[in-house]
Amino acid sequence: MSITLTIDNQQVTVPEGTTVMQAAEKLAIRIPRLCYHPRLHLEGSCRVCLVEIEGMSRPMASCTFPVYEGMVVHTSTPEIRDTRKTIVELLLDNHPEDCQTCERDGNCELQYLAYSTGVRERHYEGEKKHYEKDLSTPSVIRDPDKCILCGRCVRICAEVQGVSALGYINRGFKTVVTPAYDAPFSESVCVTCGQCINVCPVAAFLEKDYTADVVKAIEDPDKHVVVQIAPSVRAAIGEGFNIAPGTPLTGKAVAALRRLGFDEVFDTQMGADLTIMEETAEFVQRFKEGGPLPLITSCSSAWMKFAEHFYPDLIPNISTAKSPMSMLGSMVKTYYAEKKGIDPSKIFNVGAMCCTAKKFEAARPEQQIETSAGMMPSIDRVITTRELVWLIKNAGLQFANLPDEDFDPVLGISTGAGALFGATGGLAEAVYRTAYWMLTGEDLEQVVVEDVRSVAQGIKRWTAKIGDIKLHFAVAHGLGNAHQLLRMVRSGEEKFHFIEIMGCPGGCIGGGGQPYARAGEGVPLDMDNLRKRAEALRSIDSGKKLKCSYENPDVNRIYKEYLHKPLSDKAHKLLHTHYKPRLPHGVWNRDVMRTD
Amino acid sequence: MACSCCENQFDDLTQYISGVFDPEHPQSSLISILHHAQERYGYLSKDVIEHIAQVTEVPAAEIYGVVTFYSLFKTKPQGKHRISVCMGTACYIRGGAKILEALEDMLDIKPGETTEDMLFTLSETRCIGACGLAPIMTVDDKVYGRVEPEQVKGIIAEWREKAEKV
For residue A515, how many other CB atoms are within 10 A of its CB? Predict the structure, then answer.
């Protein structure tokens, strides 16, 4: 049933159940908001979105109020504007006054609200909060002093990611958002995905900043500083410079990295091709030799920590292949170092990633590799897309005007399959292309698998026919969806051969290290935005002549000169890892929202 | 296999949960489970909360939120006797804060803390409905009315003596 109402003297007709806020958007009215997020349960706690509804004695929160026939709404009367301004002022009263030195300066939703509601002077000095920052993980920082208790982090962690690492403790002014027992993140079920950072309107969550370490290494004449850039970074980095998403900015990103002073600029997509070779070989081997199946992918670092906390019983099903970043990192410190005659201990390996969890992965002790200079981490520092954007701004580079440049040779060539990795379904598609070749010895003609490409659908199922063989694929992105899928796998309700799981909504393109949505305009994890980022990666694939990882000449040369073949002893030492159950045990959250 | 003492440590709690737990509404019985656990174990330790989380499938972060929301739930071991000082309006005006200060000095603890010998836990409380006797302090169920800060010493000594006799 549709309902007609009047908002600011304009009539609008919307389906029953629509909220006043949503109805207003149809009329190009963006009611100011803070705790609201379209993907999360409505909380109505911040009261910023108050509107006047005729017949009601007091203003109502438009985010939670459903429309009714004949309703008359005023979203911007002088009284409403004044009330909103007061609410924002009260929020500011116990918020630190350090905008100029805050990382969210210029892209903070609270700052934007202060500006747009017209707060130009301060009337009250409120009590400030004084808590310790949580610096316990190499990935995500929590700063309760900045928190305004909108609860978007708590809800995304529970409802979209199904992790529920965060909750509110205490009450009233003493309320704090923290992991259970007020423990540091490192002792919680936090999977370091960084979605709390993505949805936080202020700077209560941030990635741990490694830009200073990277700059120091670049300035050190003894260090050979190598950088690699993940597919999703090139799909989103432009947003940090107000360039609309949808076009890959590979060439400009490479040019920027070179100008920042990195000695070599390599492509994580090349590492992805290696991952596909190893993972597909592992899959084919398990398929032929009786399991264990399904084989579950292991590239997503947040998913891997999630599996250790929540699904330790499925660890035998999880591929031992390292992520593209760690594979390429391993090759840089072994193959490349030997080829170039560089002491691996002098190499400083940087990953420019869309991901905060990759910082955790790089620091995992079991990810260390044996090089000619002894055991060492394959990646020394991971910086997020946001940190890279800052480095570029800090260096005064005009990103949009940079020329397009190519990756450095040796570890720079990649196929379309490698690019697909960054968006949900891409890994399954890439594995299918190579599995087809490994199982039949023939090239696949129809390489695109539309069935696994949707960004909106949380769980996707697809059956591949390879000769007489039918292979059942499943794809889940966002850990809440992974929960839904894996519970069915665990109970035996559904059976698959191959499962791709990406920790973040949309896959890596929705990673916790991607540029923030524009305050006051954009929405974090906006579906259209994710779709455009995915399109950018798929356009790389369609523009490449080489579409399958086994066609990559760099990959083939590495196998010929160094690793011999996929799953060889050497490949196992350098390109594979292991996982083990991790405490505390995760508890499945029933509040997870289904998106499939 | 884990040692049997750990395995069985929370057996009766598990049994209690299975009696009141409704899988359709996992949060609905949480408060009564927490009450039961606190009564049984004296306070809600991390291990107890973790156990409740595993059995009810309510995430620990959520349970801990409930536990810290209600001042009745305790996350630390409690002393044998609970001293409460009323900080309601009437008691406050008539010197409740001074009583509390005297107790803090004497016991060398702050509200919410327990003495090293585990004998006393100090807490603030709101109106207990005996404003005519303000200011009020209680030790367990015993109410002391019109308390003067100088009397505090004697009251504590009285309870210490009682504890030593047992």
Answer: 24
- The CATH code of domain A212-575 reads 3.40.50.1780
Which residues of chain B make contact with A589, given a CB cutoff of 8 A?
59
Dig out the tokens for A183 from the structure. Answer: 């423990």
Largest CA distance in chain A: 80
Q: What's the CATH number where B51 sits?
A: 1.10.10
ipTM: 0.91
Asked if residue A592 has pLDDT above 80, the reply is no
The CATH number assigned to the domain with range A2-89 reads 3.10.20.740
> What residues of chain B lie within 8 A of the CB of A588, using their CB?
57
Contact A293, A236 (CB under 8 A): no
Residue type (1 letter), A547: K
List the single residue in B46, B58, B64 with the smallest CB-CB distance to A587: B58
For residues A316 and A489, give the distance between their C-alpha atoms in angstroms, rounded to a whole number.
14
Per-residue tokens: A381: 């520092």
CATH number for the region A140-208 comes to: 3.30.70.20
pLDDT given for residue B47 in this prediction: 94
- CATH classification of the domain holding B97: 3.40.30.10
DSSP track, chain B: ---HHHHHTTHHHHHHHHHH--TTSTTTTHHHHHHHHHHHHSS--HHHHHHHHHHHT--HHHHHHHHHHSTTS-SSPPPSEEEEEE-SHHHHHTTHHHHHHHHHHHHT--TT-B-TTS-EEEEEE---S-GGG-S-EEETTEEE-S--GGGHHHHHHHHHHHHHH-
What is the pLDDT averaged over residues B90-114? 95
Nearest in space to A482 (alpha carbons), one of A359, A588, A325, A364:
A588
CA separation for the pair A70, A6 (Å, rounded): 7
Nearest neighbour of A180 by CB, restricted to B54, B57, B61: B61
